[in-house]
Amino acid sequence: MVEKDYLKQYLDRTPGSKRLFARAQKVMPGGVSHRFRFIPPYPFYVKKVGGSKIWDVDGYEYVDLWMGHFALILGHKPATVQEALKEVLEVGTHWGIVHEYEVQFAELIQQTVPCAEKIIFGVSGTEATMHAVRLARGFTKKRVILKVAGGWHGANNELMWAIRGPYEKPESMGVLPGIAPYTQPIIFNDLESTLETIHRVKEDLAAVIIEPIVGSGGLIPADREYLKMLRQETSKLGALLILDEIITGYRIALGGAQEVYGIKPDMVTMGKVSGGGANLGVIAGRGDIFSLCDATVKRPKGESVMVGGGTFSCSPLSMIVGYRVVTYLKNHAQEIYPRIGQLGKKLREGMAEAFNKNGIVAKTTGMGSLCGLYFPYDAKTVVKNPNQMNQLTDLEKVDYEFRIRMINHGVFVMHGGGAVSFAHTEEDIQRVIAATEEVAREMKKAVS
Ligand SMILES: Cc1ncc(COP(=O)(O)O)c(C=O)c1O
Q1: C-beta separation of 220 from 365 below 8 A
Q2: Is 177 in a helix, a strand, or coil?
Q3: Is residue 11 classed as helix, strand or coil in its secondary structure?
Q4: Over 70: is that where the pLDDT of 2 sits?
Q5: 372: pLDDT strictly greater than 80
Q6: Which of 110, 303, 355, 423 is most deeply packed, by most CB within 10 A?
């Protein structure tokens, strides 16, 4: 097989990464601990970061749009976090005993997130959604959780279902097929089929868990009517609505997507941005639901919900960094959200235009600071859910050819785009758009 031009360029630029990957493969399966970070033929290795940029071990600079899995809303190593870390150095990283930092952070979340009457901290998003589901089943005494087909809520067993097609097959060996009746898929933004599923499950519906902007399916925003319907139907049935705002929390607006959509869920899960770059999972929501895991109330076994555990939960590290970053977001919300939103819009429009003027149909998704990109097989296609993304678009082109070509041009993208941070400048966005144009020209040349 002839080596592809862009692949050859990538291999030529990255000998240091190649060497590191060879070492990594000897100690980690496939060379990575997070499978998403494997980029074929091997990922480039980062050596240094700052603001909107990252530098690899071979000395190349990149505009970063991945921003630590969308977590780094203030960019890499912002002054706020550097300051917070000085305090962490003073007090230590981990105590395992209660302290004021956790109280003040919970107070801040209560003030800023509309549905957050009560808050519990954990260490990851995966853990947060696992506990949210358990709380929902415990509170409603019902069994079925509906989740979006193609939606990713972390790797916990409860929600490891219907992530990649075919949706009726277990996602992974080791996940019991027996969870299928209790974790069922719905089609994002498809009112009719979702209503049908809700009415089929009906009395046994514990909760719908949904991202307002479905991330792993390509950063697709929910239609307002769709979320409104889910709110109404879950309320009618005595089921809960859990918004998974692990991507959108503190990113789309200070109060998250629930503020933007005007929808108050019963529970919300957050992580990413709220941790400010430290590891964090947050579950928050209605006080009556959280009373089921109130440690001060003695209940007979089987009448409370076990939430918690987590040696590192509420570590001063995550509480201080998260608190300082969210405080910064609160104090500068008027400046931050409009600015990253405008840059996000420029990115979405500019990247699509860069392709379209070169005769290649590419469309962008997202909202605010989030931007995804896809190549539909048919120019008329407008993708509304992950199922359509899987079936009607060239996913491999985005994840492989486009990404490698962008890397060669000094831009790191995920899902075809990524997340703008407050550290990104107008110039960064123009640089990404210019790189996209170069890539579009190369791709056009490659097919002609
Ligand atoms: C929407 C959503 N929920 C849950 C998770 C899991 O979070 P974590 O990776 O912190 O476990 C993710 C992570 O990508 C996510 O995007």
Answers
A1: yes
A2: helix
A3: helix
A4: no
A5: yes
A6: 355
Please identify which residue in the block is written with the tokens 């930092």. Answer: 101
Exposed (0-12), middle (13-18) or buried (19+): which is 374, by Cβ within 10 Å? buried
pLDDT digits (tens, 9 = 90+) for 254-294: 999 999 999 999 999 999 999 999 999 999 999 999 999 99
Residue of the CA atom closest to atom 8 of ligand 1? 125
177: pLDDT confidence band, cut at 50, 70 and 90?
confident
Q: How far is CA 162 from CA 78, 153, 445, in A?
A: 37, 11, 38
Is there an atom of ligand 1 within 6 Å of 222 CB? no
The ligand 1 atom at the shortest distance from the C-alpha of residue 151 is: 1
Cβ burial 209-247 (10 Å sphere, 16+ → b, else e): bbbbbbbbbbbbbbeeebbeebbebbeebebbbbbbbbb
Distance from the CA of 111 to the center of ligand 1, in angstroms?
Answer: 23
Task: Kindly report, residue by residue over 191-214, the tens digit of the pLDDT.
Answer: 999 999 999 999 999 999 999 999
In this predicted structure, what is the pLDDT of residue 335?
A: 98
Q: Across the chain, what does the average pLDDT equal?
A: 96
Give backbone dihedrals phi and psi of 100, rounded to 5 degrees, phi first.
-70, -30
Task: List the structure tokens of 86.
Answer: 């000085």
The answer to whether 202 touches 239, Cβ cutoff 8 Å, is no
Q: Which residue has the tokens 């005494």?
A: 141
Nearest to 186 by CA among 169, 171, 201: 201
Question: What domains are defined for the chain?
Answer: 5-76+336-447 (3.90.1150.10), 79-331 (3.40.640.10)
Round the CA-based radius of gyration of the chain to a whole number and report it: 22
Q: Is 211 in the pocket of ligand 1 (CB under 6 A)?
A: yes
pLDDT in tens, 96-124: 999 999 999 999 999 999 999 999 999 99
- Could you list the beta-strand ranges (E) of 273-406: 281-285, 363-365, 370-374
